């Protein structure tokens, strides 16, 4: 199979169209495992679309609560090849002593599927036990800027336009300027790549930013945003019930069904500003 890039594969397919069968080339979004190691110990394996792997590893370490700052990452790079391992699929990290995990006491290592993020949490309390703080209460966003963001997201999705098979996460500032966009076959990985980019660029916390995701707004995406200090999370699809509950508890603004000139505010409507925003029409 010809290989065009690490994040896209080219394959031969048969397409049925109104009674006619055609052979054609088709692009596929690549999916490969990424192992994150701390020292010589494997910490996590996540199925992801190759690309921006250092950002993905940094974002994962941060949003899973293993580190609290960029300074706690002493080393972050592709592992040296050994024993036939594809070193491009292994990120080796070295953490400051206070951040290094105690593998002997860990209940399990992390495994993340591309579809659902971290699977097999011991309990929901293990996710919510961290000291999550409410994001910036003073942040305001013009609704007219918000409704323009999905078009910017779609036009910037290079790999999606070729494959149709990737999620995207994008970070915008309060003026609607696109700061960074990352794509991945897993929506949670795309978010970790965005947050990892911000961490490595020294932009944390993201207290004046909007996180837009191309799929649904699930619980894990909301908690990752809160860890990063993001005050507004928007998605083009629906949020989950647990995501709404967490957003309301931590006073994060959560927006769903952001399409055209319509969106639904599930939590934190006080951050959405605009000339007509305060006109509440009871349905």
Can you offer a commentary on this structure?
The protein has a six-stranded mixed β-sheet. A six-stranded mixed β-sheet has the order 12-11-13-14-15-16, with helices on both faces. Strand 14 (232-235), helix 8 (241-250) and strand 15 form a beta-alpha-beta unit. Helix 1 packs across helix 6. The chain has two domains: 32-124, Ubiquitin-like (UB roll); 141-273, Cytidine Deaminase, domain 2, CATH 3.40.140. The protein is an alpha/beta fold. Mean pLDDT is 84; it is low at 119-123. It has helices at residues 53-63, 124-128, 143-146, 149-155, 158-163, 187-200, 219-227, 241-250; strands at 3-5, 8-17, 20-29, 32-38, 41-48, 73-78, 90-95, 110-113, 117-118, 141-142, 167-173, 178-184, 209-213, 232-235, 253-259, 262-267, 272-273. Helix content is 23%, strand content 34%.
Please sum up the structure shown:
By secondary structure, the protein is of the alpha/beta class. It is 23% helix and 34% strand. The N and C termini lie far apart (55 Å).
Q: Looking at CATH, which topology of the largest domain would you report? A: Cytidine Deaminase, domain 2
Q: Separation of termini?
A: 55 Å
- Give the strand content: 25-35%
- Shape, per Cα inertia axes: flat
CATH class of the largest domain: Alpha Beta
Helix-strand makeup class: alpha/beta
Structure annotation, total helices: 8
Weakly predicted, low-confidence segments: 119-123
What name goes with the CATH superfamily of the largest domain? Cytidine Deaminase, domain 2
Task: Give the spatial strand order of the biggest sheet.
Answer: 6-7-4-5-8-9
Mean pLDDT rating: 84
Number of domains: 2
Nearest-angstrom radius of gyration? 20 Å
What share of the residues lie within helices?
Answer: 10-25%
The run of helices and strands is: EEEEEHEEEEHEHHHEEHEHEHEEE
């Amino acid at each position: 199979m010809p290989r065009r890039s690490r994040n896209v594969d080219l394959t031969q397919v048969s397409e049925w169209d109104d009674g006619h069968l055609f052979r054609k080339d088709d692009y596929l979004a690549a999916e490969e495992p990424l192992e994150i190691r701390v020292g010589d110990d494997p910490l996590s394996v996540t199925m992801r679309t190759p690309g921006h792997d250092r950002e993905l590893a940094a974002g994962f370490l941060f949003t899973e609560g293993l580190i609290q700052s960029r300074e706690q990452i002493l080393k972050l790079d592709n592992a040296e090849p050994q024993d036939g391992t594809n070193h491009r699929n292994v990120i080796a990290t070295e953490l400051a002593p206070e951040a290094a995990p105690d593998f002997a006491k860990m209940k399990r290592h992390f495994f993340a599927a591309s579809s659902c993020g971290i699977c097999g949490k011991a309990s929901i309390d293990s996710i919510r036990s961290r000291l999550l703080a409410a994001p910036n209460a003073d942040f305001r966003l013009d609704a007219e800027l918000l409704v323009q963001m999905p078009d910017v997201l779609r036009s910037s999705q290079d790999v999606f336009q070729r494959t149709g098979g990737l999620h995207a996460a994008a970070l915008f500032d309060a003026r609607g300027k696109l700061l960074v966009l990352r794509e991945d076959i897993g929506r949670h990985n795309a978010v970790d790549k965005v947050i990892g980019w911000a961490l490595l660029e020294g932009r944390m916390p993201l207290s004046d930013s909007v996180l837009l995701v191309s799929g649904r707004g699930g619980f894990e995406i909301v908690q990752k945003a809160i860890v990063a200090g993001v005050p507004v999370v928007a998605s083009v699809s629906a949020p989950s019930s647990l995501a709404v509950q967490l957003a309301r508890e931590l006073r994060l603004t959560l927006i769903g069904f952001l399409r055209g000139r319509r969106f639904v505010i599930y939590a934190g409507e006080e951050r959405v500003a605009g000339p007509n925003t305060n006109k509440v029409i009871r349905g």
